[in-house]
Amino acid sequence: MKLSATTLTASLLVSVIAILLAIPMMLQWERPPMDSTQLGFRGLGMEQITNPRLAEKLKAANPLPTPDDPVPDDGVLVKNDHENYKNVQVLGDLDTAQFNRLMGAITVWVAPQDGDNASCAYCHNIENMASDEKYTKVVARRMLQMTRAINTQHKSHVAETGVTCYTCHRGQPVPANVWSTNPGPKQAGGFAASRDGQNVAGQSVPAYASLPYDPFTTLLKPDARIRVVATTALPEGTGADVKATEKTYALMMHMSSALGVNCTFCHNTRQFASWQQSRPQRVTAWHGIQMVRDIDTNYLGSLTDVFPANRKGPEGDVYKVNCATCHHGVNKPLYGFSMAKSYPELSVPNP
Description:
Layout: H1 5-26, E1 35-38, E2 47-50, H2 55-61, H3 96-109, E3 113-114, E4 117-118, H4 135-153, H5 155-158, H6 165-169, H7 216-219, H8 242-259, H9 280-300, H10 323-327
Antiparallel strand pairs: 1-2, 3-4
């Protein structure tokens, strides 16, 4: 049977369109060969798949800093030196030499660079260092309290590695990976007026999947129910409906991407819901979720009235943290390098 020229042209056009539509999808694929590491029992698919060609890119995103050299104590506590140190509300328990060393490090970790030097003026009025007139100083004080709380109250997640300001900030005043409530794109009227928080490809969910694009606002608030596993075919009233499951899946995909791991890094593929059959890393991740909720609610959330409008999201809430804020694509922030050991004053309880 002979095909007409019109039919052949139409077929060719359809093929070209199909190829053009496939190109954006193919750009998301990773070409072999890949590295595979067995994590669990054989036959369960519990393997970590990594792309060796991304290793250099990850290293560039996670530069390891050089801690300042230790300094000897000068024997004077900040809280006792009323002439030189005023309005020190958090770090008054430090020796003045340790205090100055830490302040110097914080300017490098957080403050924007001024030539070759970080500027103390980002937080302080240089003419009156005790003044709280700059909101950045008020925020920094609360963040120091938060850092100490993480290192002392959330050891189930950070262990002895701990965190410093650099863990999140990496030399920038605002960490690269933060989030706020996402109202979504503007909608047309009528039936299409509401997407109910999903069906829009967005960066908040990796791979630009059309899952709920803001899983954080509801699932990272205190006491939110993340685990949705139904035991009946129609789980009405249990909270384990399809919509809740999709939002949970969106959060899990964020965690997977933020840590650069597969689902099997925490879960056993034969029974995702079973804690007894999961890897120990799942418990660590659970504690990480509790830590993020504490940070977002009790520390960053408490600064809502302090931050100016340009440091808030489109809905007026402050920028908050999620897994990517610390991890930057690797399962241990900074590949497990512990800066907190070089700054032990950040690993003591708040006064």
